[in-house]
Amino acid sequence: MTTRKPVDLVFVHGLFSSPSTWQPFVDLIQGDAELASFVSVHTFRYESPPIRVRIDRRIAEVDDIADRLWTYYENELRDAASIVFVTHSQGGLVVQRLLARQVWRGRADKLSRIKNIVMFACPNSGAEFLLSVRRFTFFASRNPQERQLRPFDRAVMEAQETVVRAVVQAQGVSKTECFIPLASYGGVSDRIAPPIVTSMPFSSNGVVDGDHFSIIKPTGRETSQYRIVRRALLGAGESEQPPASSSDTSSEWQVRASVTPPYGRRDTPLQGRASLMRSIESPNPLRRVHVLAGLGGSGKSRLALEIAHRAEATGCRVWWVPVTRINSCMRAVAVRLGAPEVEIERAWVGSASATDLVWRLLNSQEDPWLLVFDNADDPGHLAPYDGPVSDGSGWLREPTIAKGKVLVTSRDRNESTWGTWSAVHHVSPLQESDGAAVLLDRLRPEVSGRSFEEARKLSAVLGGLPLALRAAADYINDVNTKKIWGSDSAGIRDLATYRAEARRRLESTTNSDSGDLNESLGLEMEHVFGLSLELLTERGVTLAPRLLKLFACLNIAPIPYHVLLRQDVVAESPLFHGSSLKQRIAALGGLADLGLVEPHVLPDVNDEELAQVLSLHPLAHGVLRQDKEVRQRHLDYYGLNVQMLLAMTKGLDPDYPESWVMWNVLAPHAVSLVPATLLQGTWPRDRQVTASALELARLTARYLIVTGLLGPAQDLIDSLISQCHLFGLDRDDREILALRHEEGRIALDRGEPKAAEEKLRQVIAGRTQILGEDHADTLASRHKFAKAILEQGRWAEAEPLLRSIVNAENSVRGPEHADTMVVRHSLARAILNLGRAAEAEQMIREVLDIRRRIWSPTTPETLFVRRTLAKSLAEQGKDAEAEAEARDAIREAGDRWHAPAVMHLRYILAVALVHQGKEAAAITDLSQLLVDRIKALGPDHPETERTRVLLAQARGIPPDQTDGSSRQPGAAARQAPMPRTTAEDSPVVLPTD
């Protein structure tokens, strides 16, 4: 028996209860020889009477109980090195409050002795059931413990927010955070605290048998409740708490992506990888980049997770980056490495290299670190913009310091792909005995015939593929749990019957001429999936197979299943004609029961429906996309996915930040789905599917452009434009012209106005011929064309173009439409730069009045309009008014000092100060502005140079050194170079995935 460290188990009872409620658990643990050898059991007692009997006594509040538990922790448990809390009902809220109060007091590091927390029937969002009985009870308004069980109690929610942030999502141990695994389980028949209540807000949750009271009365060691607690105790006896890590710089971008390793997937021991782990963990200074390569389902990610866990336990900093979200996750890594926000913004908008920034920080770290790139099946995602990944200048590079190490998981086993500086480790299927261990670890104890020999035989048939082994064990577990006899596919009940059916199917496969599994694992998994899908069909869950195939056609990124499946187009599809949302969700539940999909909740997504996502293993995507039905009904499967995604976008303009959370979830699927729908295969084309796919591509490109992800946007658009003949369209058809319009926008945002001008000139010609000169789409292209001219400083040429567009927009979209407002602002700026400041001022004030009435005063475009107003005032010598306008706008912007619009306002403010002879104040402001612009834009950017010149003039440096004429400082500054910018639909964009 493995020697384990001592563990102290503390049971915390619930409302109106006592320690005796835990006796069934205590008896089972004391009778478990393995647990009894290292586990000491404690039952924490606190008073929880329904009513106050004596007037000289009070009923303790939850905070009082939490503090009493802390005293118990510090005294009675002072010698305990590893503690596990198991709670029931209100006891879970008590422990959460204990955690939160220690975090608030700056003592989170003292929580490090707690190794795990398991909560049963915890009313995390309140017990609505009690609302129906409170009005009949005497204690309804008098019991302080009961009051905090009411739905969405503020104190409870505050504690939970702290626990999620500083405990569940913690990066290590410090005064302000402490990582502790925490899981919440609800009873399937619990009416007091149903599973939907117990699962909030924690991502690690589940449902077990029982009601609110029987959930903690396990009848034997085979029950889920006991197995959950047992697993927590075994883990606490063998694992160390992750080491303390330095406090990370806070940033709003940290909520966009997590780079914390998903340790919750370490649900069973890792088998058969000891040699590989030794090879990777050895301190070889010549091998700092390791690639775990193998077929999907071979356990690469699980192996990487184990390596990450062991590295973190030794004091190594670890970041886990899913390659499907490479941009947002690497931005999160930059934040955790302490990069200044202005540098991050500059890098992610393309003014500097994001890869260079992150790697400069990584190579300057003093502490050991491990960076994991998971699911890099397309190595191009890690490559530099203009070369292969083997160049070593993209996201994947060789660390220059001995304490740094990189780990990659990928299906690509070609060593030339990764370069000579990378060590490629082939992750092969498991040996028969190791595969047998995987099966036995996952099988329930009550499954008959679970001998090692039978497990080894099934492992051999399944080729030792971990995903296939897990799916087989889950299938057998499900059959035995459901107790459905006579309707199971082929009568499968145990290892032997599963093996017999799997062998029969494999042997009947056409062209199956080899026992070598290296090339046929995908086929084997198809049969493994087939067994489970047949079982669901026989149980009446007939929608499950097509649902799984439908989602397999999407990207491997998290799939927002509930938002997709509630769209009307699903029931209209021939695949799911007439089905209800309830039926479709029930089918997903069946898939989840057999482990074919993994539902989870996206953290920090406020939209509860959008946060509900599921994932398929990459092998499931690969196998099921090649399914015979999917290939024969390509338009049905891929077309429905297109229609669902497009329906998701209704009313959510990608240009507005309030829509970006949804687009962040949707975009990875759209980017891969549209080319797969239109460019692959030779299937008959459907005009409606084609039009919908192109509209989805256009909207997705707009989102990518406005968030600064120009590379993915360019890739998506270029492939569709250049190969439009494959789906029956020409470059001058209106759908392709729409994509070419976005292509011109990309050129503008990349600082290529000449190229943009030519592209947009051609688009205007095409749109004018098809749609007319004053059609809304043509006007949009005309405005972007005028913007390209503005970007080149051709103000006189731009004025008549913009004036004609304004006149047309007034008729087509109305004088107060958002697009009309932007064009009117552009026209005013052109007039201002032509020297007609008074005329420009009047125009700008009209625009600003409308913007203040319709839009928020802090939107970037409104701030840019106010900058132009201040500039027009300064040009007319109204310096005090210009100063007041700039100061008020800066105040409205709050702390966004480094936003482009605010930096322009700061420059105009300095101009107004110098005009008034306030050189000292101007010098102070300009000195800081120059530093900020160098960081954000670079030392050679025109705006940086204008700031440098104005600062020199304010200091009275001779004119021949500032490119100015011989004037006094005030007069010189009045003619100092002013920022020349152009109108944009979204002046300030922040990149996101």
Automatic annotation (TrEMBL):
Residues 9-158 form the AB hydrolase-1 domain. This is Tetratricopeptide repeat-containing protein. One of its GO terms (molecular function) is catalytic activity. Gene3D superfamilies: alpha/beta hydrolase, P-loop containing nucleotide triphosphate hydrolases, Tetratricopeptide repeat domain. Coiled coil: none annotated. It comes from Micromonospora saelicesensis. Residues 242-253 have a biased composition (Polar residues). Residues 237-270, 953-993 are annotated as: Disordered. The lineage of its organism: Bacteria, Bacillati, Actinomycetota, Actinomycetes, Micromonosporales. InterPro entries: AB_hydrolase_1, AB_hydrolase_fold, NLR-like, P-loop_NTPase, TPR-like_helical_dom_sf.
